[in-house]
Amino acid sequence: MDWLALLQILDSTLRLATPLLLACLAGLFSERAGIFDIGLEGKMLVSAFLAAAIAAVTGSVWLGLLVGTLGSLLFAAIHGLASITFRGNQLISGVAINFLAAGLTVVVGQYWFAEGGRTPQLGQGQRFEQLTLPFAAEMRDIPVLGTLYAEVISGHSILTYMALLAVPLSWWLLYRTRFGLRLRAVGENPAAVDTAGISVRRLRFAAVGIAGLLCALAGAQLSTAEPAAGFIRDMTAGRGYIALAALIFAKWRPWTALGACLLFGFLQAVALRPALFEQTLGFRIQGQLLDALPYILTVVILAGFVGRAIPPRAGGEPYVKER
Amino acid sequence: MALDTVPAATAVPAIELRGISKAFGPVQANKDITLRVMPGTIHGIIGENGAGKSTLMSILYGFYHADSGEILVAGRPTRIPDSQAAIRAGIGMVFQHFKLVENFTVLENIVLGAEDSGLLRPSLARARRELRSLAEEYELEVDPDAVIEEIGVGFQQRVEILKALYRKADILILDEPTGVLTPPEADHLFRILRNLREQGKTIILITHKLREIMEITDTVSVMRRGEMTATVRTAETSPVQLAELMVGRKVLLNVDKVPATPREPVLEVENLRVVDAKGVERLKGVSLTVRAGEILGIAGVAGNGQSELLEVLGGTMRATGTVRMKGRPLDLTGREDARDRRDAGIGHIPEDRQAQGLILDFAAWENIALGYHARDAYSKGAMMDQAAMKADTADKMARFDVRPPDPMLAAKNFSGGNQQKIVVAREIESGPDLLLIGQPTRGVDIGAIEFIHKQIVALRDAGKAILLVSVELDEILSLSDRIAVMFDGRIMGERLATQTNANELGLLMAGVTEGAR
């Protein structure tokens, strides 16, 4: 494998890891507060659709992102209402959101654009362009580090950089602020929070809201920042579930979440280049098998082959006040 | 009984409740409660389970809202709509089940909800300083950086007290604080409470243990069925009088029994060893014998191998060594299970009735049949005879005074004492030759304790063998004929109940033997 091919793979790794990372952090906030969120997938899908649709119609990708965010937050609010206010089953609520999103996006898409549930391809200005970071051109010729900076780090959408920034920000919020302490506490023992005189409901809604926001960014990355920008049906393709697997792999921590999502991104990037495998290994691997790699890893992780992961203790349980 | 001998109102009460009432659906948990707690005193509130003590204190802490009535804090009428308001009014509460975040440090738990600002660092630093001075002032040493799940319950309780003090509580409510503590830990807690009283704090102690009330309180209020039946000075009352006020009739505090007439050995245990999943040896060669017609009591601080002993004999844990039941060796390798043990004539009242003794969502009749459901009396061919089970349950409930006597009611809807009576009825009535009993009266009210003790003694007098495990030394001393003390997986010594006392047993429980003394 040559140096250039490696650079290309690393570059796609970062691009493909972006929606995973954002969704993973969304799940992290929600689950750390004790609310399971199977509905990451659905929220990403809603945001992806609305962002692309609004960008196509108005020509403004930022307006698209705003409306996509509102859509994702609305779905987050539904999840909150079902699982916090009415103490419903969080898994069922999440699954319902996924079905609702998968159906609505296609139906509304067909009604608006009549292209079989797709949105029109987004042109210049209607999508998030690749940003060239400062000094990228100048540093290109410095061996290794300079090249890495210019070819891998530089040249992504603003959403990728937001995702990368979200990692230290999440860590700081969770471990260095009052809000983070309370959020983590409510996912472990809501009764401790309640008896301290803090509203369990408000904290959990805040967490679910943050999850909605991050899912919105993840969805927008898929439909407005990929090379062929535009929405197609079910374009999240299970990324919400892969993000949940990455979350378990990362043991519900922000920095390890970055690592886990980069690993999944790497596998997806590799799967895009079957020729490279043939070249380095000397034999052909079935393309479908390569495509399945991230999902196989997901199964392996969920089967618990990566050591014991202890989830937040109050996860999945509605809080009921008791003596 | 009317309110009598209320302490003279020389000062303004720290807490005054006037006409507090609270109903949960049709159940009147608190009925027109009036209570005055004087500042700088330890005020006990005693009553049976379900008398309404915890409900009353939860109202005071803003966890529940009273339907009617008034709360005065230091003479001022105060509304307490939530816990934050209670904290502001200077009221702190230590719940029976701690409200701590298990994987947080002590410091984080103390700061939670009482942070100074949006950033944690300054709050944690201040809490660390404050904690040091509180520790010195009140004998409340804890390591601020220890993680809660890695420290003992005694320390966890101190963290709860520190939480309240850090929030500047002047009035501290403790709900059944000694339920989870060993005797030395309870002694330490009482020293802390006396210390707090000397510093001018007011303490409300909720308990159902008469001994604690007599030992530490200045004033005691008695509750029965949601009503405050009396408030008296502790110095002017007696355990017998308090028990009568609690239950509403005369109660025998000591077990009435004739000397035992032990006969042939029923259970013979030799060199029993258990290694747990972590590779720790929990039983290190235990040998004992229980004879027909006697009660062998196992004394010891919780966690010294008693639970493992019961589980091995009850058929739910593997071990090595030999156990003979009426001369026949029992299998210890896991091939025989709890049902085989029952068929061998061993009844078992497990230590934790809610986890091991009952299925809480099942009706009383299903729980009464549990484990014996395959017996002929409950069967019609291959089918269960539900009618027979229900009729039998109604009969047992009547004879064991289970209230309410409704076979269709789910086990979780009975009080702790009545749940235990269901388990006791099931195991005693199955006609065992040997009855294993773990903590028979944990969380059970006085009236039910008296009843359960009588049943155990009656079974002994009927010539059955009984192995009794209890962490309550009083219970061991009053029920047993012979007493074996367990410490660190070993039997430290055996004594005849008539020839020993709490002091001698206490030393054995701490692992001190004659040679070392």
TrEMBL record, chain A:
Location(s) in or outside the cell: Cell membrane
Pfam families, A to Z: BPD_transp_2
Superkingdom of origin: Bacteria
Entry-linked InterPro entries: ABC_transp_permease
Membrane among keywords: yes
Gene Ontology CC annotations of this record: plasma membrane
UniProt keyword annotations, A-Z: Cell membrane, Membrane, Transmembrane, Transmembrane helix
Principal place of residence: membrane
GO molecular function, one term: transmembrane transporter activity
Transmembrane segments: 12-29, 49-79, 91-113, 158-175, 205-222, 255-272, 292-311
Protein name in the entry: ABC transporter permease
Automatic annotation (TrEMBL), chain B:
Name of protein: ABC transporter ATP-binding protein
Pfam families for this protein: ABC_tran
GO cellular component assignments: plasma membrane
GO molecular function list: ATP binding; ATP hydrolysis activity
Major subcellular site: membrane
PROSITE patterns: ABC_TRANSPORTER_1, ABC_TRANSPORTER_2
Family: Belongs to the ABC transporter superfamily.
Keywords: ATP-binding, Cell membrane, Membrane, Nucleotide-binding, Repeat, Sugar transport, Translocase, Transport
Domain (ABC transporter) ranges: 15-250, 267-513
Record flagged with keyword ATP-binding: yes
Membrane topology: Peripheral membrane protein
Cellular localisation: Cell membrane
